[in-house]
Amino acid sequence: MRQYEVVLILQPELEEAAVTGVLDRVKAWIAELGGSVVKVDNWGKRRMAYLIRKQREGQYYLVVAEMPSSATNELERNLRFLEPVMRHMITVVE
Asked: What is the sign, positive or negative, of the torsion defined by CA atoms of 15, 63, 29, 58?
């Protein structure tokens, strides 16, 4: 299994309960795909370089996970349709 970093930019107006729900859903997807979450890091609310969905700020989260390489496509597809996620990026940790 490889280690991946999943960076999420969530909508800035989300309350803590909604953010927890999104992160729990991402963790569940990773577990369903045969992986495990190593850590979740809150980078806080930051100003973005350009507008995304008419928003100037976003809540940034880093999820470090170990999962098979075949699971990244499915995780990417699920993240694309999750409404509170404005942007996401999955990268391999070497």
From this structure: positive
